[in-house]
Amino acid sequence: TLAGIPAAVVSATNTSVVVRAAYRASATTGDIVLLASMNTVVRRTLGWSYVTPAIISSVSPATGQLGTRITVNGSNLRQGGAVFTNETKFAGINVLSVITSTDTQAVFAAGSGTTETGGTLLVADTGAFVSRAGTF
């Protein structure tokens, strides 16, 4: 568990465990608790913090082409991360680059792809992501 919330194990070895955190509607801090197959418990006290979920409030412009600067406004956009990755997408197309980013605004250069409409997917370097449908 992560701060008392069950987490899905993605992969595990004798020396590391990768889990996917479940959604939590508010910020909290708590223990990381791992339960091995032999009922052995490994605990790190106050080892995990959920951050307040991100919200995308606007994306501008709503259309563009290769290199178009796209501005995303919202709150807690990086969700505890330092930067966005190039896995960030607009209408299913990866961004060309991240120009600037804060927790309230990010500017990207649009990547190249076929004409599509769709949503916005921001991916932080922590693996956390936020999306909003019908924005691009």
What can be said about the biggest beta sheet? 4 strands, antiparallel
Structural class: mainly beta
Gross geometry? elongated
What is the straight-line distance between the termini?
Answer: 36 Å
Helix amount:
under 10%
Work out the helix count. 0
Poorly predicted runs are none
What average pLDDT do the residues reach?
93
What is the H/E string? Answer: EEEEEEEEEEEE
Tell me the number of strands: 12
Radius of gyration, in angstroms, nearest whole number: 18 Å
Strand content range: over 45%
| Largest beta sheet: strand ordering | 5-6-10-9
Tell me about this structure:
The protein is an all-beta fold. Helices cover 0% and strands 46% of the residues. The protein has no helices and twelve strands. The chain has strands spanning 8-12, 17-20, 28-35, 41-50, 55-60, 69-75, 89-90, 93-94, 97-101, 105-109, 120-123, 129-132. Strands 5-6-10-9 form a four-stranded antiparallel beta sheet, with no helix packed on it. A hairpin with a 5-residue loop joins strand 3 and strand 4 (41-50). It is elongated, with a radius of gyration of 18 Å. The chain starts with 7 loop residues before the first strand and ends with a strand. The model has no long low-confidence stretch (mean pLDDT 93).
